[in-house]
Structures are given as C-alpha cells and as structure tokens.
Write a structure and sequence with these properties.
The protein has 15 helices and seven strands. The protein is an alpha/beta fold. α11 links the parallel β6 and β7. α3 crosses α4, α3 runs parallel beside α14 and α4 runs parallel beside α11. The longest helix is centred in the N-terminal third of the chain and has 26 residues. The N and C termini lie far apart (137 Å). 40% of the residues are buried.
Length: 397
Amino acid sequence: MTTTPQAVRRASPRSRRSADAPVATAAAPVADPSAGLLPAAEPVRLLDPNGTPVPPRDDYPQPPVAALRELYRRMVVGRRFDVQATALTKQGKLAVYPSSRGQEACQVGAVLALRDTDWVFPTYRESMALTARGIDPVEVLTLLRGDWHCGYDPAAMRTAPQCTPLATQCVHAAGLAYGEAYQGRDTVALAFIGDGATSEGDFHEGLNFAAVFKAPVVYFVQNNKYAISVPLSRQTAAPSLAYKGVGYGVPSEQVDGNDPVAVLAVLTRAVEHARSGRGPFLVEAHTYRMEAHTNADDATRYRDGAEVDAWRDRDPVTRLETYLRECGELDDAAVAAIAEEAEAYAADLRERMHDKPAVDPMSLFDHVYAEPTPQLVEQREQVRAELAADSDEEGAR
C-alpha cells in the first residue's frame, strides 16, 4: 500500500507529541513594581481654596477639629512671627531672613504631625516651624542674627541646627532615624526640603539609604515653585517632585500645601508609615512663598505680580479660618484672642531682639573638633593676640 505524504505527517512522532502536549495558557500577569509607591495623580485636597470641604477620602481621614483649631492658632502666631522677623532685618537686627509667609500650613502642619520625641531636620527657611515646635524665637533667630551657629540645644529640642547647605540634612535625618530604630526606639525623623534641594546629590543619597535600611524618616518637600530665581520647570521634567520616590522604592504623595487640613492628614499618615517600620515616605507639598527668597533678593526680577496675587487668593490661614467658622469652632472673639496672642508674641520678640548679645570672639573655635587641630590652635592664638593688641591700644588712649 502506498502511503501519502499527508499520512506520514499525521503519523509523525512530532505530531503525536504535539497532540499530547497540554494547551498553552496565557502567562500570569506580572505585578506592577511601582504599586503602592506612586503618588496620587492630583495633589490631595480636603478643603477647596474657599475653605469649603471637598468630598471626604477614606485614605486621608480629616484630623480632629481640636487639632485643626490648634493648627490655626499656631499658624496665626507663626505668621506674625514671620512678619516681625522680616521687619527686624530692615532695622539691622538680623543679617538675613528667609520668609516662609504663605507656607504656614506646611511649616506648622509638619510639626503637629510629630511627637515631641521625634526629630526635625530643618532648612534655613523653617524658623516658623521651629517656633511652632516650642523653641524660643530669639534662639531660633540666633543663626540669622550672626552671633552663634545655633541658639538652641538640638538634643534637648530634638531639632537639628538649621541647615544652610542644600539637602545635607537629608543624609543626617536618614542616619539618625536608622540609629534610633537600631536601638529599638520608635522615633521618626522629618526632614524639610525645598524644591531646589531635590536637584542635589544628598537628597538622592538620603532617600536611597533610608529605603535600603528602612529608616523611619519622612522627607517633606515644600515645592514653593522657585529655587531662588530658578523656576520648577528648570529643576525637573517629572510630573511632580513626588515621583522621585519611586526610583528608590519610597512611597510618595503630593498634597495641596495651602490646604492645612490636607497637609496635616497626609503628614500624619506618612509619619505613621515610618513609625510602623515600613521605611521612609516622601511628601511633596505644592505651595508658594509670598515674599522674596530672602531680604537680599528681588523677586520682581523673575516673577510677576499677577502670579503672586493668584496665590494670595489661596491663603492657608484664611482657608482654615473660614472652615473653622463654618464648623462653629471659631468666632470673632476667638479670632481676636488669637490675634492678640500673636501680637504679644511679636512684641516680646521685638523687645528682646533689641538687647545686644554678649559675643565672645574666642567661642568661634569651640565645638569645631573634639580635639583642636594644629591649624585651629594656630588660628585661635592669632585671634587671641589680635584681641589683646586691640585691648592694649584702647587702654593707651
């Protein structure tokens, strides 16, 4: 019998094996590695710019009303402090002052999300946050006055010295948080960062270290749209700065930084995340500084008045006051009492800043090294000799 080619093909071992093989199924879906890391597409908001609540969110429940009233009180006092500090620069009492007016929700909301036992790592702009934390305002302004490196005791206040170099506090915060966790303490460190600081290497090194070692640290970026005169568009092409967390495995969120309720809610959750042992968290607040970068800056050279006016309409203090009035938690008498407290706070600061500090030039050499280097000893003796010569000259007159 003649066998046809078709019969050969049907009878081939390969054909038999194919027929016996299991039917191929679709590959199992691969888990998205960015799941749980990316921020919301739009900044979290719980109050609209008019102070009206937006629909509630399950992921960010509204903080207790008592906490919001305290937030309002400290914001009002903080703003009055900021205005007074700005005036002190014009009177020659401060060498420089970086205002945080317009960023009150971020400055105070971050502090209220922490325990007293937690640590704060501020930049040079966080004077308002430090006073909200309970640090003496005169001690806060010592650095900006130019008579000492840090006027308060960092260990006692659980607050690092205000940091002028950009982003170095990111590494310090990661190290302290890791060390605290290593010793079995549930301390959280919160590092304030400006939008410009996210372009610095220390920001990325801090995030990476904290993520790898699950350090309980919250990185809080106050995106006030300008790094001195450099706009955000020249800092990054990312959808938002919060997206920088995903590259390091750090969960992130973005929030309306002029919505005090949302800021407190988001930061409370971020702090809880870090404290629970799940590692760092990155929060970006979209806000705006109403004043220039410092009193030495002319902001009119790089932004126009219409932009400033648009942000003035989103004022965080007014927004929260409106909401609390609608809730029946504030009335005219309460608002007036808080304003009076703020004026008394500013008056006390003004009076004490008029006293000239007693400055010892030799103290420049204290606390530089545990054991002074030969070069430092030589410099110290040179200054001592110059002071002695000046004293002898004064005595001869």
